[in-house]
């Protein structure tokens, strides 16, 4: 019973970390990288491109919302 409650607490506390770790492992195994560092650099580039695209899309929606509210 104590072990079960420990596991439940651990799962709640580290859920996000576990998801990131699973994504990183999947990203690493998708291509043939020379080493984990090379994969990490590619992952950073990929993540930054996604973030920039998301911010651009968000700003576009905000501007449209402002225009429809004002006009």
Protein model, in words:
Helix content is 89%, strand content 0%. The protein is flat, with a radius of gyration of 20 Å. It has helices spanning 2-13, 15-30, 36-70. The chain contains three helices and no strands. With 71 residues, the chain is an all-alpha fold. The mean pLDDT is 83. The chain has two domains: 1-30; 34-71. The N and C termini lie far apart (62 Å).
Number of strands: 0
Average predicted confidence as pLDDT:
83
The separation of the N and C termini measures 62 Å
Broad structural category: mainly alpha
Order of helices and strands: HHH
- Beta fraction: under 5%
Major β-sheet profile: none
SS element count, helices = 3
Shape: flat
Number of domains: 2
Condensed summary:
The chain contains three helices and no strands.
Write the layout of secondary structure elements.
Elements: H1 2-13, H2 15-30, H3 36-70
Any descriptors?
0% strand, single chain, 2 domains, 3 helices
